[in-house]
Amino acid sequence: MxxxxxxxGGIDPAAIISLMNHRSVxxxxxxAAGDFxxxxxxxxxAAKEQLWREHGxxxxxxxxxxxxxxxxxxxxxxxxxxxxxxxxxRFWGHGAAICDRVLDEAFGTFGFGSVTILLPPSRRSAHGxxxxxxxxxxxxxxxxxxxxxxxxxxxxxxRR
Length: 160
Prior knowledge:
Elements: E1 3-6, H1 13-21, H2 23-26, H3 38-55, E2 59-64, E3 67-77, E4 80-87, H4 95-109, E5 114-119, H5 127-131, E6 135-142, E7 145-153
């Protein structure tokens, strides 16, 4: 698999819109409400690019073998670097490899001591994040939505 991390601003908005409206993807995105069209996509991309300007890090678009597979990466969340991952279902089998690459950036390039992942309770299993070394670290809320928080410390990261 050839994996490239690139900025969301370089991705065709139609591909982002298609991903963000995919029924299977939306099922695990409690913060996504209403229609996600061209206006929402432009605001979304602008907000993600603003994270890069303000914090020096943010989410990427993921290209797998040259095809847009989804977006994610590191986002500031309540004082933590939080790993987000939103993939098209055709690429769900690549999630662990993409997370590994993002963690390489988090602990290497950016020098973070730990990274969190927030999962909605609708995710019935956290086996995938546990295999990456993440451990339960409480709960948090964003607006009215509850999330389970998992944390991985750089020193606890399993080597593959």
